[in-house]
């Protein structure tokens, strides 16, 4: 744990890859345009889910709590601490590689979900957007900045931030199925609209924030040679120690 801490604090300056690549500027602009575009449908979306009680909407409401952070933080913390306190000398070289992979990725899961969630909560307070529970009173675009409380904590969605972070984790671990993880993540964050807890622009903001934060955090660690490493020309870093399938 001490070694990992020292390596995180000391970047490897000989690595040319920046934490924030230039392509992220365009992705950031695209994300902001997506949020702005969806905001035009916020009112229509809430009116639609209020007026419908279909089987799909009911199922979406039933699984909406899958975006709560404790479902990911608790297992990640247990795996991280469990791997840290095992006797690494007794498992051999291959065993140490597996423990290193588990230790690094479990710690990264905890940090990505926890830090993105904390930052999203700070943004909620600063923005102070009214939730759909106040839709009839104020409409979809009412803001009271620096308000503390559930009613004015709509943007960005905390559940969507967590799902965005988890989606990014899955993409980093299994990049071959990136499109599938993205589709699943988008469906899961849409359940927050079905539950009338958030507007579409709220979930877009949260999902993109969690996704972008986790990718940047992985690049931050890759620059330091911890848990990830860069692959030239690619935005997504590679997990260090992950088994590579043999080519036939």
Element layout with pairings:
Layout: H1 2-9, H2 23-39, H3 42-51, H4 55-62, H5 70-84, H6 92-127, H7 135-138, H8 158-173, H9 178-194, H10 200-223, E1 228-229, E2 238-239
Antiparallel strand pairs: 1-2
Helix pairs in contact: 2-10, 4-9, 5-6, 6-8, 6-10, 8-9, 8-10, 9-10
Into how many domains do the coordinates divide?
A: 1
Number of strand elements: 2
What is the overall number of helices? 10
Termini separation comes to 38 Å
Uncertain ranges = 244-248
Major sheet summary line: 2 strands, antiparallel
- What is the subunit arrangement here? single chain
Strand content: under 5%
Radius of gyration over alpha carbons? 20 Å
SSE string, helix = H, strand = E? HHHHHHHHHHEE
Adjacency order of strands in the biggest sheet: 1-2
Quick one: overall form?
elongated
Helix content: 55-70%
- The helix-and-strand class reads mainly alpha
| Overall average residue pLDDT | 91
Task: Name the descriptors.
two-stranded antiparallel ribbon; 2 strands
How is this structure best described in words?
The chain is an all-alpha fold and 248 residues long. It has one domain. Helix content is 62%, strand content 2%. The protein has ten helices and two strands. It has helices at 2-9, 23-39, 42-51, 55-62, 70-84, 92-127, 135-138, 158-173, 178-194, 200-223, and strands spanning 228-229, 238-239. Strands 1-2 form a two-stranded antiparallel ribbon. Helix 2 (23-39) runs antiparallel to helix 10 (200-223) and helix 6 (92-127) packs across helix 10. The longest helix has 36 residues, at 92-127.
């Amino acid at each position: 744990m001490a070694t990992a801490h020292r390596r995180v604090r000391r970047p490897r300056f000989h690595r040319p890859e920046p934490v924030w690549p230039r392509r992220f500027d365009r992705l950031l602009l695209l994300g902001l345009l997506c949020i702005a575009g969806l905001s035009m449908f916020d009112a229509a979306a809430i009116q639609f889910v209020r007026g419908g009680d279909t089987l799909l909407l009911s199922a979406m409401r039933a699984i909406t709590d899958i975006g709560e952070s404790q479902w990911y933080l608790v297992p990640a913390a247990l795996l991280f601490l469990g791997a840290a306190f095992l006797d690494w000398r007794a498992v051999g070289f291959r065993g140490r590689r597996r423990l290193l992979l588990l230790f690094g990725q479990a710690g990264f899961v905890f940090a990505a979900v926890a830090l993105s969630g904390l930052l999203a909560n700070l943004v909620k307070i600063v923005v102070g957007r009214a939730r759909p529970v106040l839709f009839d009173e104020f409409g979809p675009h009412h803001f009271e900045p620096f308000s503390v409380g559930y009613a004015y904590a709509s943007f960005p969605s905390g559940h969507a931030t967590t799902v965005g972070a988890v989606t990014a984790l899955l993409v980093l671990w299994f990049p071959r199925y990136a499109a599938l993880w993205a589709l699943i993540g988008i469906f899961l964050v849409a359940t927050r609209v079905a539950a009338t807890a958030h507007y579409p622009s709220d979930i877009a903001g949260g999902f993109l924030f969690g996704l972008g934060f986790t990718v940047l955090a992985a690049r931050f660690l890759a620059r330091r040679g911890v848990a990830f490493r860069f692959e030239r020309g690619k935005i997504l870093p590679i997990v260090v120690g992950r088994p590579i399938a043999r080519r036939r």
